[in-house]
Amino acid sequence: MSDFTLRNGIIVSGAGEPAEGALGVREDRIAPGRGAAFDLGGVSCVYPGLINTHDHLQGNYRPPVGPRPGTYYLTWLPWDNDLKASSMFQERSNLSREDLYHLSGYKCLFSGVTTVNDHFPQKFNAAILPTLPVRAILEYGLAHEASSYDLKWGDGLEIEHRRALKNNWPFITHLAEGFDEEAMNGVNYLEKKGILDDHCLLIHCIGFSDRDIEKVAAAGASVAWCGFSNKFMFNVTCKIRKMLRAGINVSIGTDSAATGSANILEEMRYDRELYRSMYGEDLPAKTLFGMVTVNGARAFRMDRRLGTLEEGKLADILVLKARRDDPFENLVNAAMEDIELLTLAGTPIYGEHRFLDALGGGLPRGYTNITVGGRPMFIKGDPAGLYRSAREKIGFKKVLDFLPFEPEEIHA
Known about the structure:
The chain is of the alpha/beta class. Helix content is 30%, strand content 23%. The chain folds into two domains: 3-48 and 310-381, Urease, subunit C, domain 1, CATH 2.30.40.10; 51-299, Alpha-Beta Barrel (TIM Barrel). The strands form three sheets. Strands 1, 2, 3, 4, 5, 14, 15, 16, 17 and 18 form a ten-stranded mixed beta sheet that branches. Helix 3 (97-109) packs across helix 14 (383-394).
C-alpha cells in the first residue's frame, strides 16, 4: 500500500496558489503520509495528474493522414475514407487492437496523463481499458456524432444520454465537426432531442455559431478543444475565446495521433500559439493548466475525485523538473523528459529510481526499467518490449514520437 510524502516541492494544487510545501499519500488518496519521505529540494513542481478529455486509443499511429495539399475537409467523413485508403492504415493493421491500445496507454503516461477518455463504445474497449497503465474511463454515455452520417456507435443518442443521467456520467459526442448543414445544426439537434444539458461533453465544435455558444453555456455543457487536429483537418478551430468568455467549461483533448498532436504537452503549446495567432493576445498558462486538470475532471463529472491535489481525492500526481520560475509556465513548456514521477491513485507508475522506496524498495513485479533523457526510470509494464514487438510486426524500425525512448536493437 502506498504511504509516502513529497517534501519541499512547489505544490500546484489547483485549489489555491502554488506554494512550497509537502504533499502526502496514504493508500490511494492524498492524505498525510507516514512512510518514506522524498525531498524535492525546491526544484520540482507537483501537479495533479493531467486529464485528456478526447482521444481514440485504437487510432494512435503515425504519420497523420489529412487532406491533399492546398485543400481541407468540409466534414470528418472524407477524412475517414482517406484514412482507410491510406498506406498508414495498412501499416497499422499489422498491429492488434491490444497493441494499439497499450501503445496509446504509454502515449498518455509519458506525457503525464493519468485519466483519458477513449471515444469508442464500451463494447469495443471494456475488456482492454482496465489493462492499460493509466486510467481510461468506462463511465460515460456516447454517440459518435449527432448527424445522419455518423458511425452509429452505442445504443442511440437518447438511450446513451438516459444512461449517462441515471449513472451521473458524462454524455460524450463529437459535435459540429465540419461545415455542412447537418454539422452546423448539431446544437439545435441535441436541443430538440432534449439532451443538451450539463452532462454533455461536446468534442471539436468548430461549426458553432455565436447562438450555439450561448445555448451550450446556458445548458452548462462542456467542450473538449482539439486545436491541432482541427487545424490539420479543417484549417480552423472552434471560437475558443468566445467560449471562454461565455463561461463554458473548456478542457483539452489530443484527438488521435492520426490527425492530432503527439501528446497533451504538445497540444497545450500548440493551442496556446494558435490562440495567439487568432486573437493577437496570450492565453494564460494558468488557464491551460485548468483545462488539463480541474476542467477535465468537471467534464467527466469526476471533480469530487480528480483534478486537484486536495486531501481525500485520488492521489494522481505529476512531478516535473522546475525549469521555469512560474509553475504554470513550467507545465505548459514541459517536455516528456522533464517528468520525475507519476502516480495513479497513489501508486507510482513511472519515475526516477530515487522514488523506488515508494514502491517498497526494489523494482516490483510487473515493472521494468527504461532510459529516458539519459536517466534510468522505472515504469509499470514493459513498454520497451511492446515497442520491439510492434517493430517486428510492422517489419522495420518504426519511430513513434510519443514514446520518448529507444528500445534495445532487435536482433535476428
